[in-house]
Amino acid sequence: MAEGMTGLVHKYLRHDKKFPHIWCPGCGNGIVLGSLIRAIDRLGLDKNKVALVSGIGCAGRMTTYADFNTLHTPHGRALTFATGLKLSREDLTVIVIMGDGDATAIGGNHYIHSARRNVDMTAIIVNNQIYGMTGGQYSPTTPYGSKTTTTPYGMVEHAFDISALAVAAEASYVARGTVYHAALLDQLIESAIRKKGFSSVEVLSNCHTQFGRRNKMSSPVKMLEWFKENAVRMHATSKMKPEELQGKFIIGVLADSERPSYNEEYEKVRERARGISKEPNPPARCEG
Amino acid sequence: MGKAPVTKTKPDSREPGGTGDARKPEKPKKSYRPFIIQAWCKKCGICVAFCPRQVYRCDDKGVHVDKPEECIGCRFCEMHCPDLAVSVQERDAAPGGKSS
Question: What is the model's pTM?
Answer without folding.
Answer: 0.86
